Amino acid sequence: MRKNIVSVIGGHNCTNEVEQLAKNLGKKLAKVVDILVTGGLSGTMKAVCQGFKAAGGLTIGMLPSYNKNDANPDVDIAIPTGLGLARNILVVKSADVVIALPGAEGTLSEIAYGLQFEIPVISLQSWDIPGTIKVNTVDEAIEKVKEILEQKCKPAAK
Questions:
Q1: Would you kindly state where each structural domain of the chain is located, as residue ranges?
Q2: Class of domain 5-150
Q3: 35, 19, 47, 33: which is closest to 79 by C-alpha?
Q4: Which residues of 73-98 are buried (b: 16+ CB within 10 A; e: fewer)?
């Protein structure tokens, strides 16, 4: 059976509050999905990987550079794409569902890719954009992930 994958997107710079939000999200996500994909660098990407890995999950980092060593220490599998910001497409397309944390233009581009590719995007205290699923807490985000994955895993009607 195929593994469930969530991509978490957000800023490479973040406040302590957002860092704690991301770590908590990672810990709770590890209980409901198999694999976490991020951009593999610092800020929210590092914090969510820390939480996910600490809870026993597998993390993948889609790096913008050609160097695996650029990944944060909580990335289990580093994929050095060499694509710069274009790697944002890979981060999003890898996912069954995307969770957006606070971030700047890079995060905004990833949200747009999610909407363009019809991949559900949960906005957790992030951009308020039509088409995203707006939530305010980690627990609300986890519940939405569960709902989305249940719908995706239902067998097709005959």
A1: 5-150
A2: alpha beta
A3: 35
A4: ebbeebbbbeeeeebbbbbbebbbbb
pLDDT average, residue stretch 14-37: 98
pLDDT tens sequence across 82-120: 999 999 999 999 999 999 999 999 999 999 999 999 999
Residue 30 to residue 36: CA distance in whole angstroms: 8
| pLDDT tens digits for range 118-154 | 999 999 999 999 999 999 999 999 999 999 999 987 6
Supply the pTM of this predicted model: 0.95
Put the strands of the sheet holding 97-100 in their side by side order: 77-80, 58-63, 35-38, 5-9, 97-100, 121-124, 133-135
